[in-house]
Amino acid sequence: MVAGNSKQVESLLINNEIDVALVENSSGIQELRYTAFAKDEIVAVTGAKSVYAQKDTISVAELISAPIILREEGSGTLETLMQAFSQNNIDASLLHAAAHLGATEAIKHFLDYYDSIAFVSRFAIRKEVKARSLKILQIPGLSILRQFRIAERMGPQLTPQSLFIDFLFKNNIKVGI
Asked: Hey, what's the torsion of the CAs at 84, 3, 16, 168, to 10 degrees?
């Protein structure tokens, strides 16, 4: 198993280094076949001790003035977030990006120590929200949904790859909402 952002794992697929990947971006590389897998929601979140945790809802103006923690370039999460901002007339260039981190786990830990807001998968933070170490912030009018997809190289499907994909669907494995 390999963890990486969507662009990284697509590159590994094309270079025959892996046989199947779960991606969250909207790319459509010709050498790859994509199958819709699971839906997910990206939410604004802050640490429970953060000054932002005093509220349940923040405005776009408050968001723009807050330090924001983002995923790195090439991340499907970042791509989805930027598309949602554009569709909702939010100028992403006005955001105060305090850090770009390479993994959701890093973002969750960063939020423990830094008053900031991040955008992560609702699914990825369910334990922290339940434990009240992270708090979801509502942004009126902003809903960020995405589709996870299974990516494979074009051509015949290898038996292990086919078995893995069948397992995901038959066992109702869900990575999102």
From this structure: -80
Domain that holds residue 23: 6-37+148-170
Are both 13 and 73 inside the same structural domain? no
Q: By three-state DSSP, how is residue 58 classified? A: coil
* 22, 38 contact by CB (below 8 A): no
Instruction: Flag whether 176 is in a domain.
Output: no
Per-residue pLDDT reduced to its tens digit, 55-102: 999 999 999 999 999 998 888 888 889 999 999 999 999 999 999 998
What's the pTM value of the predicted model, to 2 decimals?
A: 0.79
Q: For the chain, what percent of residues have pLDDT higher than 70?
A: 95
Sign of torsion over alpha carbons 37, 26, 103, 114: negative
In this structure, is residue 1 part of a structural domain?
no
